[in-house]
Amino acid sequence: MRSWLLLAALLPHAALASEHGLSLGATAVILTNGANNVLSPRLGLEAAYTYGRDAWRLGGGVRWVPGGGGSLPAEVYARVLLTPPSGTWRPAVGPEVGLSGLPINLPTRGDLPNELKDERARRSMPFYIAVHAQPLRFVFRSFTVSALELQWGTPIHQPGSALRLQLGLLHLGVAL
To answer: pTM, whole model, 2 decimals?
Structure first.
């Protein structure tokens, strides 16, 4: 009986200590597989959910980046961020893993035989890993504003075969 009373007393406190949030933002993605093969920045939209507890924020979301190649111009991702638990300025940093429909193997200069192009497309996996940083993230009561987020990543299947750079232009969020 005492354990139920203890659980009933601690559960509301744990729920109040956690923070759920939704955010929307604009982002720019740059993909490259070498100095000569850089795609122009592709602008897109991002929607994310986060669950924060103390200094940790767990979350995920979806990015829609139209234009260019790729079977589906979208990405689905999950991330874990470490951030200060209080204060107005709350920068965050941590790993992100995702599934991307954006092209990973970019066309090389010169012409490759179709067999080699097909082999490269087959070997490229759409999963990536990245380091995500939000140096200009601010919290005002239940609202969040983040600008100039930076992400640097590579495909999981062939690390270093391609580089993805992402710049989060502006993200606005609200705590639920």
So the answer is: 0.79
Provide the residue-wise pLDDT of the chain in tens; the chain has 176 residues.
Answer: 455 444 444 444 444 456 899 999 999 998 887 656 667 788 999 999 999 998 999 999 999 988 755 567 899 999 999 999 889 999 999 999 999 887 655 555 556 665 665 555 555 568 999 999 999 999 999 999 999 999 999 988 888 878 889 999 999 999 99
- Please give the Cα distance from 5 to 60 (Å, whole number): 34
Indicate whether 7 belongs to any domain: no
Q: Decide if 79 is inside a domain.
A: yes
CA-CA distance, 96 to 76, in Å (whole number)?
10
Which domain covers residue 157, as residue numbers? 17-175
How many Cα neighbours within 13 Å face the side chain of 169?
11
CATH number at residue 167: 2.40.160.20
